[in-house]
Amino acid sequence: MALTYSQMIDLGAKAPEFDLPVSNPQIVGSETLNLKCASDRKPFAIVFMCNHCPFVVHIEDALVDAARVCKGRGVNLIGISSNDTLQYPQDSFEAMGRRAQDKKYPFPYLYDESQSVAKAYGAECTPDFFLYDENLGLAYRGRFDETRPGIGKATGKEFLQAVDELLTLGVVTMPQRPSMGCNIKWK
User: What beta strand segments (E) does the chain contain?
Assistant: First the structure.
């Protein structure tokens, strides 16, 4: 595991297009999901994640809870795995579907086999969070909360505060700190 921090790309940057296969299609009723459907002219969040990263495993239960909170507030959350599955078969599309089912993910879990989506978004690590406003402008990028494996219980406090500020103020004013986790396993 190589500890990696997320890039702090410019706020306001537009969300890049994507059209990716969904490992848990029962969530969206479709085999693929694109940016237009994911955003649906509402704020939405993307988390780059995978099955095996200890940083993702650490936040996973709190992430499921946060996704439910987001959904209740009209914010779509999407998970995307971009890892090289030849080197990390535990992150394969089939394993993603099993993980999503076992953990009852209330959000679509997409597979970026070409890794082009991760590169377009500037994702560096797992987990890496991006929150966009209804105009597809980046409002928040960075960490879920201050915890990490072995240090604290994940709550999603920072990410959920960003969601709350975006919905109530129209902008995220809180300090934004880079996420940290395992590097995306590039091909």
Answer: 3-5, 19-21, 32-34, 44-48, 76-81, 109-111, 125-126, 128-132, 138-142, 180-183
pLDDT higher than 60, residue 94: yes
pTM to 2 decimals? Answer: 0.96
For 141, the 3-state DSSP assignment is strand
- Mean pLDDT on 94-123: 97
pLDDT at 9: 80
3-183 fold = Glutaredoxin (3.40.30)
Q: DSSP alpha helices (H): ranges in the chain? A: 35-39, 54-72, 93-102, 116-121, 157-169
Distance CA(28)–CA(1), nearest Å, equals 32
Task: Determine the length of the chain.
Answer: 187
Please give the Cα distance from 157 to 78 (Å, whole number): 18
pLDDT exceeds cutoff 70 at 13: yes
**Residue 2 neighbours by CB distance under 10 Å:** 8
Quick one: 35 exposed, middle or buried, by C-beta within 10 A (0-12, 13-18, 19+)?
buried
Task: Report domain extents, the chain.
Answer: 3-183
